[in-house]
Amino acid sequence: MAKRVISAGVMSLALACSSAAARGDALPQTIAVDPVVLHDGSARGMTVRVSYPAAGRALPLLILSHGNRLSRGDYQPLVTALVRDGYVVVQPDHGDASVDGFAPATPQPDDVWRTRVEQIRWLADHPAAIPSLVPALRGRIDAKRIAVVGHSFGGQTAALAMGATIAEPGSDTRKTYAIPGIRAAVLLAPPGHDAGLTAEWKKRAPYLKLDWTTMRGPVLTVIGMEDRTPLTDQGPEWHADPYRLGPRAGAHCLMRLAGVGHYLGGIDGPLRPPAGDATPERQARVIGATIAFLDAALDRRTGAAGEWPRLRADTECR
Fold this sequence. Notes:
By secondary structure, this protein is an alpha/beta fold. It has helices at 18-22, 76-84, 112-125, 129-133, 153-161, 199-204, 241-244, 280-297, 303-312, and strands spanning 5-6, 30-38, 46-53, 59-65, 88-92, 141-151, 165-167, 174-176, 184-188, 210-211, 219-224, 252-257, 316-317.
């Protein structure tokens, strides 16, 4: 099958900014509450950032899983666009999160891959916990519309939430961590199959042995064709494995973006490497496709959802 690579001329994005911004109208007001500590049964609780629109009801819940050594404070261009589209965005700090931008002082827990998805499960199972601590959201969250977005290591977390199975380190037994309450997922630059890891990373990351054939849709995987991670020598296509090695049917799509690196044109802002990766156009394409896909998958009647059929035609789907 021929590969479809999205170039700068294919997608315009007034999606993330909305047509209101193009007309010079005021954008919807966004509010963030940080930190919020949820009592999830862990020793220290779960620290999250909650972002939401100032107005509106029946707001879908979006859980955003950060990459390794990033944190709840990252991905603000993506978060702002999602909130302006009407999402409540919850960003948990996982066990490998940075602290004020600095790497954790302690070694990464061996089971962080598991605790990550367990945090996502708790959030999906307890949507009422958010308005209990953020009163402005009382009666405003639509608990039947929950989705997850994960970047990099967070892409693996999101894949597990959607039913991919994992061979747990030290065991050949495969286990599922599927979360039925999550209706859709976007995997942004996720890790590929463990067989593609370098020898060093096979030792360092024994938790990357996933089987995506059990991953239910709808799932959109987005990769950059200049994403050259040190984890693999297979090049950018390694990040397409969740789609390429996933189910042969069931609302799965892959979007390849020309000229784009691991941070996909600026989803975490313009300063992430490689230099020159982030541009307003690339950032807009990724964010716009993410919102259009999620809105359509969650049956939202929005302008972005109406754009998804056109965008889908320029992606590889099954």
